[in-house]
């Protein structure tokens, strides 16, 4: 602990330098020296965060997709982190995880009826989507991890903050995990505290609310994560409820930023959870499969299974999995749930009202431009 504190302290001068650069960049946008582009003809909803690492952007994007797709034509635009391609790609049923990235691939696989596109240049990505034929042109674009991409000015912004790593207690990179200062939250319409304990007390919510120091035009809300059934990668096997882990030995394989909540959840049911952790967005290779098979073989036969995250299942499914482990691999889907039903209804209302108003304004804008 002391060693980590010493390293953090030694990095603080670099954090101050980084903070100066970020502050100057943000001011150039705020003063309109760097020109942001707005898109009045479409609702652009940004979902982002202030930190590096996982805050739960993908399940929150999926929540918004579920909310909006029955009413509007929805597109998700992502950078496509760690994809082995470049430029703008509009995903289709032939797109691979390597081509568009694991998170966009997961979203497209779950929601084939919506548009999913990747482009590092978000302006170009939006403009390419808006050039699609009118019958499929999106009415809402969900901008995945776009908070720092200031060349685009979203029509609405949602910022996520991990309950377990409060941004108001964090430091700028490289000493901490902040990509910009907490003052940047002024650009957010809604701040969501994610991964909260289900039994979070009202006093803890008030403490968080006071710590964020939001303005009256902003809303602070709290979400948690729920886990679905264990779903087999092998279609010939049946799904399992979490209580069926009792008496099982689990090899948990993760390539995500924050695996601890999942370790804790599985440990509620299985007395033996062996965790094999890889880096976030890890691209699995054949040597990794050998390591997984080797560690799996050390567990008790007839009691053992492998559990992976939904995101890791996307990457693993593209590989030639060894037959000795394939039937034993299950992934666990996650969903976002609001802690408070009133907040849930308010969140839905704010998003739908914004898109509805923006849709009316965009039709007016279109009529005026004719």
Helix content: 25-40%
User: How far apart are the first and last residues' alpha carbons, in Å?
Assistant: 65 Å
Cα-based radius of gyration, to the nearest Å = 22 Å
CATH level 3 topology of the largest domain: Rossmann fold
What is the CATH-assigned architecture of the largest domain? 3-Layer(aba) Sandwich
Order of helices and strands: HEHEEHHEHEEEHEEEHEHEHEEH
Report the portion of residues in β strands. Answer: 15-25%
Overall strand count? 14
Shape: globular
Largest pleated sheet: 9 strands, mixed
Number of helices: 10
Task: Describe it.
The protein has 10 helices and 14 strands. It has 370 residues and is α/β, with parallel strands linked by helices. The N and C termini lie far apart (65 Å). The chain folds into 2 domains: 35-226 and 338-358, 3-Layer(aba) Sandwich (Rossmann fold); 229-332, Rossmann fold (3-Layer(aba) Sandwich). The longest helix has 29 residues, at 2-30. The strands form 2 sheets. It has a 9-stranded mixed sheet, sandwiched between helices. A 5-stranded mixed sheet has the order 9-13-12-10-11, sandwiched between helices. It is globular and about 65 Å long. Helix 4 (102-110) crosses helix 9. The chain is 35% helix and 20% strand.
Question: What are its keywords?
Answer:
370 residues; alpha/beta; Rossmann fold; nine-stranded mixed β-sheet; five-stranded mixed β-sheet; 14 strands; globular
